[in-house]
Amino acid sequence: MSEGKLIGLDLSAASEEVVALLLDDPSGDTVFREILDANRQRPEILRLLYDHPNTPEEVAAEAASQLSLPARISAEAPEGVSEEPEEQEPRLQRREGILQRIQRMSVGQKIQLAMRGGKDVRGVLIRDPNREVVIKVLENPKITENEVEMIARNPSTPDDALRYIAKKKDWIRRYNVVLSLASNPKTPVGVSMPLIPRLRLHDLVILEKNKNIPEAVRNSIKRYLKLRKK
Asked: N or C: which end of the chain has fewer CB within 10 A?
C-alpha cells in the first residue's frame, strides 16, 4: 500500500478527540509531524503533542516552543537496562479503550479517523454500521493487504465493503483475497460468481461442499467442476 500523507483529511479541522486517537494509534512517525504542521495555531492540539509520550523529541520541542513551555526532558534508561519502552497495558485492554472512545464519536469524527487511523482503529471502524465510515477505512492509504484479506473473510463485513474490495484491482489480484471473498457466506452472489473460474480445483471442491455458501454459488461451482472434468 502507498505511503501517503493524510489524504483527504484536513488535520487543521480534525477534532481534539480524533487527533488524540491518531496519536495513540499512529500509522507511522510522520503523523506527529503532520499534526504539528497543521495545528500550529491550536494550543489544545499542541498540548496533546507536548504531553504525548510517543511524540518525537523534535516535534515535542517545537510544540513546547509554540506554547512557551520548557522543552521536555527525556529520561535516560539506567545503564544495563533496555531502552525499549515496556508495554503499559495489554493490547486487548488498549483496544477496548479505543473501542469505547470511538463509540462516543460522531459519524463525522469517525470518517476523519477512518482515513488515517492505525491498525487497531481500522479494526474497530471496519465494523461500523455507517457505510461511509467503512469505505473510508478501505480507502485508508496505510491499510495492508493482510488486513484486506481478513476483512474479505469476515462474515460480519458489510456488503458494501465486500463489493469495494472486489473492485480494487490491486487487491483482487491476490489469490487469498479472491478465496476469502468466495468463502465468505455474506459475499453477495453477484460478487462471488465471477470469482469461481479463478479458484484452484482443491478450493472449489471444498467450497462446493460448504453449506454456508449460498446455494446458487455452490450450484455454479458444481457446474464449473463438471465442465473442467470434460
From this structure: C
